[in-house]
Amino acid sequence: MQGSANLTVMINAARKAGRALVKDFREVENLQVSSKAAGDFVSRADIASEKIIREMLTEARPNYGWCGEESEPVAGKDPTRRWIVDPLDGTTNFLHGLPHWAVSIALEFKGEIVAAVVFDPAKDELFVAEKGKGAFMNDRRLRVSNRDRMIECIFATGVPFASKKTLPATLQELAHLMPACAGVRRWGAAALDLAYVAAGRFDGYWERELNAWDIAAGVLLVREAGGFVAPIREGDNVLECGEVVVANSAIFEPLVKVLRKG
Q: Most buried residue, 91, 135, 178, 235, by CB count within 10 Å?
């Protein structure tokens, strides 16, 4: 895909951060004897990844605002544009040596996501999109799946952990959905779940208690691949409320109907 100058900057930053994370990922296995040591190491890797991305994006576009997982937000001199970055989505997978994690970078313009990069270094899969220009993975055009029967569909979600309060709602949704579909996956990286819907690997995805950096890039990938994106609760803003449901056009309404039962 022939992208804009902004997209090129985003891709270069994601690739550089990804290379650094791959080096760190190789060291994780040696740290498993101590959960604290491993956790501290991954935190350092996360922060180092964000530093790489922030330095590259800021050098290229010094006036843009910033919203990243590991640092305080910054209002840029240009109030219409903002980077939204997750330097390591799937941190728990990374910590456990599971090769399913990604770098996620989005560009917001006047409240709308206009460019997106999700890079999976472990599999060397680069997902990119720009508003109105389609979505691509390693230069291959992406389209959401064309399945139109729920019983044939595989969905992805995130099951709440630790002290998260939405576990009862999620369990209820799983109880309603699982008998009606081919399966539900919980892979632990929202950016990749969304990218996989864009690629037709998953037929839909939903999750609660998310942050803007978890989903900003992914929602544009889905839209540009022909999918539908909405909040779980009608009337909410996806990036602000932290709840999202996405699917292809045929499955979207049946999926939303199930999720809004309660």
A: 135
Please write down the long-range contacts of 225-233, taking CB distance under 8 Å and 24 or more positions apart: 225/129, 225/134, 225/135, 225/142, 225/143, 225/144, 225/197, 225/198, 225/199, 225/200, 226/143, 226/144, 227/144, 227/197, 227/198, 227/252, 228/252, 230/256, 232/206, 232/208, 232/256, 232/259, 232/260, 233/260
**249-259 and 167-177 helices cross at what angle (nearest 10)?**
130
Q: Are residues 66 and 190 in the same domain?
A: no
**What CATH number is associated with residue 162?**
3.40.190.80
Distance between CA atoms of residues 219 and 239, nearest Å: 9
Q: Are residues 157 and 134 in the same domain?
A: no
Q: State the pTM of this model.
A: 0.92
CA distance 102 to 121: 7
Task: Give the model's pLDDT for residue 39.
Answer: 55
Strand partners, 85: 68, 105
H-run or E-run covering 51: helix 35-60
Asked if 88 and 103 count as a contact pair (C-beta separation under 8 A), the reply is yes
Backbone phi, psi, residue 120, to 5°: -105, 95
- Residue 34: per-residue pLDDT: 47
**How do beta strands 154-157 and 204-207 pair?**
parallel
Last residue in a domain, options 87, 118, 141: 141
Range of the domain at 70: 5-141
pLDDT digits (tens, 9 = 90+) for 164-214: 788 888 888 999 999 999 999 999 999 999 999 999 999 999 998 899 999
25 alpha carbon, distance to own chain's centre: 19
Residue type, position 163, single letter: S
pLDDT band at 9 (very low <50, low <70, confident <90, very high): very high
